[in-house]
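Q: What would this chain look like folded?
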Amino acid sequence: MRSELKKTGTEDLLRDLASRCGIDLIGIADVNFFSSFGETVCASHGSAPLAFSKGDITDRFDISGEWEEAQGIISFGLSYASSDTGEKKPGTVRISRSSWGEDYHEVLKRKACALMEEFTKSVPCAWKVFVDTGKLSDRALAYAAGLGFYGKNGFIISQEYGSFVFLGHILTNVPLEPDASPMDCLCGDCDRCIRACPRGALGKRRWVDWENCVSYLSQKGKEYGETDYIYGCDICQNVCSFNSDVPSDLHAEFFFPEDLRYPDPQTVAEMDGETFRRLYGGSALAWRGAGTLRKNARRFLNRKIYE
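A: My prediction, written as structure tokens:
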């Protein structure tokens, strides 16, 4: 089956269809490499906590545990890089770029389904799409598929699109031949992200210390110290040199007006559920609800009162 699919140009077909469907990055992960890489990750991860997931870390690399019929893995990504300079009005706060515009989970799923509907016309197969919804690690799969390298900030960094890339994957019940190899880290001696992290969540180990990550803590509604982000965090990505001079504003779905990107904290702190749903209900931020956003805005205001 592998040689047959390779001869029919499956990888070229995927790239062509992905481009037509508005998908920026796509690749096929080597199932064997993904499995062996998982063993390395699990061995070095130790008892460190998993971010936004439950269960054992070994589940993040168990393909059969996700779907018994799975034989092929397609990794894909959409850029959410913005031309926004980060300048804002005094007194306002920040919402992470990952929550701007339409919920990226829905955008990626929609584009992936459109891709596979076309793909199966040439390569009949069953398939399932996952965007932060399955057990498998989207970042590890993107690495295995050659979409980019692991940066020192823990993100997958594409040489063409940088690290502001939403990732997802597609499992199929037919094997697919990978056409790219995992990339070595290109960060070199650069440690901008490590130095910029306000809580020192980077650089202590190979993986991000989630218990000190502002993005993780703010999304969980936990205390995270002094920063003007009230949901998520982009600091380690903003300072990364690989995010300069990359294509930006590629997807209109991820546009947010300025007053939603940089809201007034007092307005957010007093926001009721109906207002929250009207302003943020269609974004990825809605997954955590109005309570989390209000709590973070109130903490920001309290810090300013006592300064």
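The chain is about 35% helix and 10% strand.
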